[in-house]
């Protein structure tokens, strides 16, 4: 009897032990599965980060905030050492204009040409109206210059008729696409571009790419660069090798002019390549150019009219007459209706899109933005308000 009970107890013990062993195996298997999935998922994120950000095109991205439409990639974008933006207009009769490659256009190489560059780096084929306002204002105020809107998208959307109107009115406006390898190769940013670090583990790959592209394209061609949250209010063609203060001891890379192959641009690119930071907003833009200028000019503080290496720093009034902490004033009624009189020492007005993208501009309210748009980008403003009281 005792022998039988002992055998039964042994069997029960062995069964319990087996179950514990199987339980351990199950837990280990689950842990292994989770770890493996996490590693593979992160690897895919690193290899194809661009594809994660958006799965809809700009013309069908109404669910995205204005901020997202400006700073992350749009459409089924792919990355394999080279940015590949999607094409929407390959069919005959499409409402898309296929863009010429910037590198194949020889006009910017012509002696005496004053080039003005703006860029679209999110792969959008349909930039927003504020971006077109900026482009139009540059063409409007600089009829003797060549205004280049360099887009990463291979085409531009023609559906609302705005692009055709702008091209018909401003004969100095050029819409082109960019083969980025052709632009970056041979510059200090070649390694950074092809590494894809600008696109990995960051909230704003399009902004990172913009910080890089502006330096490389002005290095390549020479000319004036402007962000697309700027309205030009006076001609720029008299400026040469200048950059403007934004705040105390900080210059802004949103507007600048440099001659082709200017050594300061090379310093900027080398610093950006060596100290690229995808995690902090502004680190690759204003903080980069400010750090380099302080180092090259051997000054602890950057100030108006400082000159070194053939570069002059302009006052904040030149491009940033309203500083970030006063940005709300740009969208409020102003007593002075003449924008040039309101900003007599300014070439352009920076509207600080990162902080004001959600602020609507109401038509005929005498705000600084709407008055500037009415005077310097009337075609874009008319298109923006055709079916809406604000834009």
Largest sheet: 9 strands, mixed
* CATH topological fold name: Spore Coat Polysaccharide Biosynthesis Protein SpsA, Chain A
CATH class: Alpha Beta
The helix count comes to: 14
Task: Reconstruct the topology from this structure.
Blueprint lengths: L1 H46 L1 H5 L12 H6 L6 E2 L3 E2 L11 E3 L1 E2 L13 E6 L8 H13 L4 E6 L3 E3 L4 H8 L3 E5 L2 H5 L5 H6 L9 H17 L1 E4 L3 E3 L9 E6 L2 E9 L4 H13 L10 H12 L9 E2 L2 E4 L24 H4 L5 E3 L2 H4 L11 H9 L1 H7 L7
Parallel strand pairs: 4-8, 5-6, 5-9, 6-8, 11-14
Antiparallel strand pairs: 1-2, 3-7, 9-12, 10-15, 11-12, 13-14
Helix pairs in contact: 4-14, 8-9, 9-10, 13-14
Structure write-up:
The chain is 40% helix and 15% strand. The strands form 4 sheets. The chain has a 9-stranded mixed beta sheet with strand order 4-8-6-5-9-12-11-14-13, sandwiched between helices. A two-stranded antiparallel sheet has the order 1-2. A two-stranded antiparallel ribbon has the order 3-7. It has a single domain, classed as Spore Coat Polysaccharide Biosynthesis Protein SpsA, Chain A (Alpha-Beta Complex). It is built from 14 helices and 15 strands. It has 391 residues and is of the alpha/beta class. The longest helix is centred in the first third of the chain and has 46 residues. β5, α4 and β6 form a beta-alpha-beta unit.
């Amino acid at each position: 009897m005792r022998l039988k009970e002992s055998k039964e107890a042994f069997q029960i013990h062995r069964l319990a032990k087996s179950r514990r062993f199987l339980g351990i195996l199950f837990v280990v298997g689950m842990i292994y599965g989770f770890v493996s999935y996490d590693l593979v998922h992160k690897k895919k994120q690193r290899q194809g980060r661009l594809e994660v950000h958006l799965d809809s095109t700009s013309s069908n991205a109404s669910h995205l905030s204005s901020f997202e439409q400006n700073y992350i990639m749009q459409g089924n974008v792919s990355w394999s050492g080279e940015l590949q933006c999607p094409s929407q207009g390959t069919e005959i009769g499409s409402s898309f204009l296929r863009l010429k490659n910037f590198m194949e256009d020889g006009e910017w190489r012509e002696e005496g040409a004053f080039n003005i560059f703006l860029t679209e780096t999110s792969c959008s084929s349909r930039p927003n109206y504020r971006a077109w306002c900026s482009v139009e204002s540059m063409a409007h105020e600089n009829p003797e210059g060549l205004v280049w809107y360099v887009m990463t998208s291979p085409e531009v959307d023609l559906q609302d008729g705005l692009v055709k109107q702008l091209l018909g009115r401003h004969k100095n406006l050029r819409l082109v696409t960019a083969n980025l390898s052709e632009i970056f190769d041979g510059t200090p940013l070649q390694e950074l571009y092809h590494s894809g670090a600008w696109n990995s583990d960051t909230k704003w790959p399009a902004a990172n790419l913009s910080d890089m592209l502006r330096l490389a394209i002005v290095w390549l061609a020479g000319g004036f660069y402007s962000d697309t949250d700027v309205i030009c209010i006076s001609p720029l063609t008299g400026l040469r090798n200048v950059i403007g203060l934004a705040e105390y001891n900080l210059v802004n890379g949103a507007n600048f002019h440099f001659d082709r192959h200017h050594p300061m641009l090379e310093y900027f690119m080398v610093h950006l390549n060596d100290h690229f930071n995808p995690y902090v907003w502004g680190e690759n833009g204003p903080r980069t150019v400010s750090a380099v200028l302080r180092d090259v000019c051997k000054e602890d503080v950057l100030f108006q009219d400082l000159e070194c290496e053939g570069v002059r720093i302009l006052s904040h009034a030149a491009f940033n007459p309203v500083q970030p902490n006063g940005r709300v004033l740009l969208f409020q009624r102003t007593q002075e209706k003449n924008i040039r009189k309101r900003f007599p020492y300014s070439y352009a007005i920076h509207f600080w899109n990162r902080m004001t993208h959600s602020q609507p501009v109401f038509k005929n309210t005498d705000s600084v933005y709407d008055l500037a748009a009415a005077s310097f980008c009337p075609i874009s403003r008319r298109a923006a308000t055709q079916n809406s009281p604000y834009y």
